Amino acid sequence: MPRSARGETTAMSVGTLSLVAKPGRFSHRDAEALCGQIRASRAPTVIVDFRETEDATTAAFAQLVLLRRELLREGRDLRLKGLRSRAASIWRISRLSMVLPLQ
């Protein structure tokens, strides 16, 4: 079973892979590691939960945008949930809702 960016076992249900983003600050390096896990899975839908993440860099979000484009070409999708604090502000200010939607 896949593991989340922070090493916890993730839940799989009805073709959906759910991963929990790193608590605290989600960086470009964290996003790269998460993207590797997502690419290795074959789940048609991937949900990344940011409920424990307070901050995320624009570079980290850029990695997720590029990954989502790749997944969409494969007939898969990536969604976010639980955005809060500064991570939510960066997502909103950067107008990422069209390219990196919430669940």
Automatic annotation (TrEMBL):
Transmembrane segments: none
Name listed for the protein in its UniProt record: STAS domain-containing protein
Domain MlaB-like STAS: 23-96
Pfam families referenced in this protein's UniProt entry, alphabetically: STAS_2 (PF13466)
Domain of life of the organism encoding this protein: Bacteria
Gene3D superfamilies given in the database record: STAS domain
